[in-house]
Design a protein that fits this description.
Elements lengths: L8 H4 L1 H22 L10 H21 L2 H18 L7 H23 L7 H9 L3 H10 L11 H12 L3 E7 L3 H5 L4 H9 L3 E10 L3 E10 L14 E5 L45 H27 L6 H29 E3 L1 H18 L3 E6 L4 E3 H22 L3 H6 L6 E10 L2 E8 L6 H10 L7 H9 L9 H11 L19 H11 L3 E7 L3 E9 L4 E9 L2 E6 L3 E8 L3 E4 L2 E6 L2 E7 H4 L19 E9 L2 E7 L1 E9 L1 E2 L10 E6 L5 E5 L1 H10 L1
Parallel strand pairs: 6-8, 13-23, 17-19
Antiparallel strand pairs: 1-3, 1-4, 2-3, 5-7, 8-9, 9-11, 10-11, 12-13, 12-20, 14-18, 15-16, 16-17, 18-19, 21-22, 22-23
């Protein structure tokens, strides 16, 4: 007979383990930044130490449960240092704080490697660094104790009340210790089966995991029973040992060996272990795997397309049914549309997480870079509460990391340089997140030296492997703008050069930057997410990168247009305005066209020309004598990166399901994906970012 699925105890909670670790590490990063202000002070706010101690204590226990020994050991070493800080045996030193920072980063790396099944990093140096900041006497006392984790538990009030009630009723209290193993799990003996068996003998009051000698996970269980003796008292039970549970004065009357457990009232500031192997942070929180939400979003997308088909069918039968029946169908259709929109927004709300989740990590990045570069940098953040899809947040971690590192390495000058040009010695890097409709805007700005266009041109002309960027260099030379200031044209050309793989303004690579791959990763990731990257820089003043990302990648509102016989969809979040302009406002400029409107000009793109489309459908073409003297255009983009698209007709605003084009053989410049409007015909979704780049660089 085959073994039942998921019969390994350590695999049962693996995904929960990673989720719990992520939550605990987020708290650790936040509390460590707060703790830095207490360096070399005689007193530390105990609440910060308790919160850190609780997180590392939980990380140690959880790692031991799933067999991540290196994470368990590292968390234990950090917990040991926090314990002596909490007991006020030493003060927090700079070396100790650095050890906590380094240990947290290494702990995160170990857990990530375990998740990705890659070789973990060595933790010997970090453990040595942590041990070096703990007094020798404290280390000796810990070694003599013979226990990895202090065997002290904090019972909840209701659990203590149940114990007192059992004693008053004359019941017997037993303390069971279960030691799980792979062999026992394969035999079907797990902590849950032990719990079920013990519950047949009485009331199970307490269950919690702990670490014992030899870094082994154990489960402690307290049972209250009216039975005079246990039915299996004389029979060995695999993985299970027991003894009478001793409380209060009774614990002083019996001898218990060093490896046995005693329950004593813990200090009030000790963290309370949970009664379940993998506790949730709140009783009203349900953890759901992201793939399940993806499946739910796909089902919502199917419903959206089905409703679109229903709408088309209603329109096709309007001439055959009486008006009252048509109105009834239309009301039902509108009701379904509202309900589906509410359902879509509800699913999206479940997927959204604060962007501050990745902003907080940037504080550690800046701190480390400042220490290695000896620069003075202040990080200012705003809009951390702005929410974005969890998938997008995870993908944007590396791009933000590269932009922040570049801001410190390339942007911010040394204190001496800043002082010479009249700037404060301390540079400023700003992270800003805002929401505009269904678009999230993230800005990374610094007040450093800015990008030197002359240096960029020199680097391109002297590096043979950057020959593909020569056309952009010509634009930088030809379109320098008034007074040598960059304009919107060379901003796009400059950004394309900076994002070219292999380009760097540094002669040699160091630990921070210089290999010429970071900006390429930023650009590619933003484009893959359907976003748009723009740059604004001024020499000697600073640089600002702006990232625009869709709030969701699955279902969006889109403007439906026709060009010739082809139908396109444009994401509504990218549409700024719909205009009708006179043909006399169109100006030919360097083999391109621009349109003058409201005291400004912007490039004009004829989609029919780009995609080699025929003109209007014959039955839609106006007679020659009534040819229109105006054009319908749609203004797209943002900031200074604005272009106008010439279209034949706008058919309406629809909610569409986005299907990205991942096959390289069907990918076309200017096309981001495809959708279906209900008539089973494929409608192409325009890539606004690509069209803007085409217009500004073409």
């Amino acid at each position: 007979m085959s073994n039942p699925p998921n019969n390994n105890f350590f695999e049962d909670f693996l995904e929960d383990y990673f989720a719990e670790c992520e939550e605990h590490l987020a708290v650790v990063r936040r509390e460590l930044l707060t703790l830095e202000s207490w360096i070399n002070k005689s007193h530390i706010e105990i609440s910060h130490l308790n919160e850190l101690f609780r997180c590392f204590h939980s990380l140690k226990g959880l790692s031991g449960m799933v067999g991540v020994g290196m994470a368990e050991e590292l968390a234990h070493q950090m917990e040991s240092y926090l314990r002596v800080l909490r007991d006020q045996q030493i003060v927090l030193s700079s070396e100790g704080f650095d050890a906590l920072i380094a240990g947290t980063k290494r702990l995160e790396q170990v857990i990530t490697c375990y998740r990705n099944q890659t070789p973990p990093p060595d933790i010997t140096d970090i453990c040595t660094q942590l041990q070096a900041v703990i007094p020798t006497q404290t280390l000796e006392n810990n070694l003599l104790s013979g226990l990895v984790t202090p065997v002290e538990f904090k019972l909840k009030p209701q659990e203590q009340e149940q114990i007192n009630t059992a004693l008053n009723n004359g019941e017997t209290l037993w303390h069971f210790v279960f030691s799980p193993s792979t062999q026992l799990s394969e035999q079907g003996i797990r902590v849950n089966t032990i719990r079920e068996e013990l519950q047949t003998l009485g009331r199970l009051i307490y269950t919690a995991p702990r670490m014992s000698e030899g870094n082994k996970i154990l489960f402690d269980l307290i049972l209250a029973t009216a039975l005079p003796e246990l039915p299996f008292q004389q029979t060995p039970q695999p993985g299970l040992t027991w003894q009478p549970y001793l409380t209060g004065a009774n614990s002083q009357k019996s001898e218990i060996t060093a490896q046995e457990l005693t329950f004593s009232p813990p200090a009030p500031d000790l963290p309370a272990p949970s009664a379940s192997p993998l506790p949730l942070s709140s009783s009203n929180v349900v953890r759901v795997d992201l793939p399940k939400l993806d499946d739910l979003m796909r089902m919502v997308g199917d419903l959206v397309m089905s409703r679109a088909r229903l709408e088309d069918q209603i329109q096709s039968i309007t001439s055959y049914l009486p008006s009252p029946q048509i109105r009834a169908f239309q009301e039902i259709n509108l009701m379904l549309e509202r309900q589906l929109r509410d359902l879509r927004q509800g699913v999206m709300q479940v997927r959204l997480v604060p962007v501050g989740e990745i902003f907080a990590r940037m504080q550690f990045v800046v701190r480390d870079l400042v220490r290695t570069s000896e620069k003075q940098v202040s990080l200012e953040m705003s809009g951390q509460e702005t929410e974005i899809d969890k998938f997008v947040v995870e993908r944007m971690l590396d791009p933000l990391l590269h932009l922040v590192r570049n801001a410190v390495s390339h942007g911010i000058e040394s204190p001496e340089e800043r002082q010479k040009v009249g700037k404060p010695r301390q540079g400023i890097i700003k992270l800003l997140a805002t929401t505009s409709g269904e678009t999230v805007i993230i800005e990374i700005e610094d007040d450093g030296r800015g990008v030197d266009i002359e240096t960029v041109i020199e680097r391109v002309e002297t590096q043979t492997h950057l020959s593909e960027t020569r056309s952009f260099v010509q634009m930088l030379k030809d379109k320098s703008g008034e007074s040598g200031k960059p304009d919107q044209y060379n901003m796009m050309a400059l950004l394309d050069i900076l994002c070219c793989a292999g380009f760097s303004t540094k002669e040699e690579a160091d630990l921070v930057s210089g290999r010429g791959v970071g900006m390429s990763i930023v650009k590619n990731t933003v484009q893959e997410l359907g976003g748009f990257l723009s740059l604004e820089t001024h020499k000697g003043v600073g640089t600002r990168f702006t990232i625009q990302l869709p709030l969701t990648l699955a279902i969006i509102d889109a403007l439906i247009i026709t060009v010739g016989q082809q139908t396109f969809a444009i994401p509504q979040s990218a549409v700024l305005e719909v205009l009708e302009v006179s043909k006399s406002q169109i100006i030919a400029f360097e083999n391109n066209e621009i349109v003058s409107y409201r005291n400004t000009v912007f490039p004009l793109i004829r989609l029919a020309k780009i995609f080699s489309l025929s003109t209007l459908h014959p039955e839609l073409s106006p007679p020659p004598q009534t040819e229109s003297s105006s054009l319908m255009i749609i203004v797209i983009g943002s900031g200074e990166s604005i272009v106008a698209l010439v279209v034949d007709r706008i058919t309406g605003l629809r909610e569409i399901v986005v299907t990205p084009l991942t096959d390289p053989y069907v990918q076309v410049m200017g096309i981001a994906g495809a959708t279906e409007l209900g008539d089973r015909r494929v409608v192409l979704i325009l890539d606004v970012g690509a069209l803007v780049r085409l217009a500004t660089l073409g």
